[in-house]
Amino acid sequence: MTATRAETGVIDLTTTVRFADVDVDTAAGIAEQLDATLRSEIDAQGIATVREYFVRPVGATVQVGLRFVGMDPEYVEDTANDLLQAALEDLRGARAGDTARGKRTSTLLVGA
């Protein structure tokens, strides 16, 4: 008799977002706002495979981490791109004319 085991893959994606002309204090404020817009986008897009996430300032940049559980690795990066782009657009609208034009500068994918 063989046991069948259902495996759920876990993939962590961490990316750094840089904002033009932003100092450390401003980055901390942006991180707080991005945290809220990211949660809103995860809910709005119904991405149930994002089980955990974090947003934290790292110097004058903001680091975002997403944990995908049970998603086909082929779709993780595209889903993360769509999610982050929407959250950054929401953030830009909330900051109206501020320097909140975020650009992703690096991404690390673990577990794919």
Provide an overview of this structure.
With 112 residues, this protein is of the alpha+beta class. It has two helices and four strands. The chain has helices at residues 24-45, 73-94, and strands at residues 10-19, 50-58, 61-69, 102-110. Strands 2-3-1-4 form a four-stranded antiparallel beta sheet, covered by helices on one side. A hairpin with a 2-residue loop joins β2 and β3 (61-69). α1 packs across α2 (73-94). The longest helix is centred in the N-terminal third of the chain and has 22 residues, at 24-45. The protein is globular, with a radius of gyration of 16 Å. The two termini are 31 Å apart. The model is unreliable at 1-7 (pLDDT under 50).
Q: Could you provide a short overview of the structure?
A:
The chain has 112 residues and is α+β, with helices and mostly antiparallel strands.
Topology, please?
Layout: E1 10-19, H1 24-45, E2 50-58, E3 61-69, H2 73-94, E4 102-110
Antiparallel strand pairs: 1-3, 1-4, 2-3
Helix pairs in contact: 1-2
Coarse morphology? globular
| Low-confidence runs of at least 5 consecutive residues | 1-7
Sheet of most strands: 4 strands, antiparallel
- Spell the H/E element sequence: EHEEHE
Give the mean pLDDT: 84
- Which structural class best describes the helix and strand composition? alpha+beta
From the alpha carbons, calculate the radius of gyration and give it in angstroms. 16 Å
Note the gap between the termini.
Answer: 31 Å
Oligomer: single chain
As a percent range, the share of strand residues is 25-35%
Q: What percent of the residues sit in helical stretches (DSSP H or I)?
A: 25-40%
* Spatial arrangement of strands, main beta sheet: 2-3-1-4
Number of helices, counting only DSSP H or I runs of 4 residues or more: 2
Count the beta strands.
Answer: 4
